[in-house]
Amino acid sequence: MQYILAGLNIDHAPVDLLEKVAVQPHELRLRLEELALHAGGGVILSTCNRTEIIGASADPETGLGQLTDFLGILAERAGRSVTPPPALNGSVYHIVGDDVIRHLFRVTAGLDSLAIGEAQVAGQVSRALQAAGESGSVEPIVSRMFHAALRNSRMIRRETGLGRDSLSISSIGLQLVQQHIGDLSEKTVLVVGAGETGRLTARTLKHVGVQRILVTSRSAERARLVCEELDGEPVPFTEMASAISEADVVVACTAAMEPVVVANDVRAAMSLRPDRRLTILDVGMPRDVEHSAGDVPNVELYSLEELHSIAQEHRQSRVEAAAQADALIERAVERFKDQLVGIGAEPVIRTLGSRAEAMREIELARALGQMPDLPEGYSEILDAMSRALVKRMLADPITYLRSGVSKSAAEDVAQVFDLDLDVTD
Fold first, then answer.
1. 67-105 burial, b if ≥16 CB within 10 A, otherwise e?
2. Which of 8, 48, 260, 304 does the annotation list as catalytic?
3. Class of residue 352 by CB neighbours under 10 A (exposed 0-12, middle 13-18, buried 19+)
4. CB contact set of 156 (below 8 Å; sequence gap of 6+)
5. Is 320 inside any structural domain?
6. Is 253 a catalytic residue?
7. Rounded-to-integer distance, Cα 395 and Cα 393, Å
8. How far apart are CA 358 and CA 395, in angstroms?
């Protein structure tokens, strides 16, 4: 079995294509069930700047074709796609084998994010694995890789500079807004969405000194909780258009499948304050703001495409920390590969140990049967001696099996000792 990955990200595909294959948390279980039927299973990792499907296959070429086809199926979902699957071919990238391990370790550590080192992505990776586990679509070998990636991400953030600053897509986006309109402390900012990204956005706004933060969400309770934490003002979702007319900045970050900030509402809001500019930051995937909202006079709309360029500046500021992280990842990949080999050899080791123990017990019983008059305590001495002898004789074969041998070498050991088992990767 080899690891395989097919995906699209913002470096390889335009945002309008990325949003066609984006999978939101509430629909992930259904998509995983479809993936299991179409390609035998896998894990779907969908974030603001990527959608990737990770699995394992004995035939990587066929497996990658199935994963790519499934991305095409995602793009064809009702109401979302005007692009036939073949149009994905130029944007989908494929990764095979050890490179999948390396890639997932980098993604989970935040090294392949728009905001390099962002902590949110580890949570997204964890939730993707949990959903795949609950749906039964992930093989043990893939699950092990994800768990290793999560463990290593914590270690990397602890041992490098990546964990020192709390960067996120929304924080980088707000820096872009500040570059264009200046200090935000005296501005009114409307946050649309009160999920994880919405909370992080509101916290960042509070941190930079924004005095008036409005929060709206389809979940009034979530909006209320965010406002309680950060001294914001909750706004009923049905009154969002009115709140837009009060705002200087709107940050949209929901998990909606269709735009929640529509051009007509923005146009109506601006008619009430025609001489006052409005800046909209859309960090949703799929996009939360109707694209034509940016055509309304005095409205400036920024989305992930604009954030992509400013994110490159942040990458330059973290070159040293990223290099340290990459060095740690290379060592982590090698450790994980050694562990996989050990795991693959364990059936041979267990069966070899069981066979040796069974033979020891038979021979010990036969020997003791021929010495019925042994003094008290001698049988225990013979038992301990036979155990030690078996342990010493198996030490070298077991060390060999756990040293990183190939599947064929493990099979050879099984054949030499006449072990009845199937050796798998």
1. bbebbbbbbeeeebbebebeebeebbebbeeeebbbbbb
2. 48
3. buried
4. 109, 162, 163, 325, 328, 329
5. no
6. no
7. 6
8. 17
The per-residue pLDDT for 83 is 43
CATH number of 157's domain: 3.30.460.30
How many Cβ atoms are within 10 Å of 203's Cβ, its own excluded? 18
Question: What is the 8-class DSSP label of residue 192?
Answer: E
186 is written with which tokens?
């005296």
Residues 14, 118, single domain; the answer is: yes
pLDDT at 56: 94
Q: CA 102 to CA 5: how far, in whole Å? A: 12
Residues in the chain, how many? Answer: 425
Q: Give the structural domain span for 357.
A: 346-416
330 belongs to a structural domain: no
The residues of the chain scoring below 50 in pLDDT are: 78-86, 423-425
Same domain? For 150 and 193 the reply is: no
Strand partners, 281: 251, 302
Residue 336 in any domain: the answer is: no
pLDDT value, residue 313: 67
- Identify the pLDDT of residue 331: 92
Both tokens of 262, joined, read 């529509």
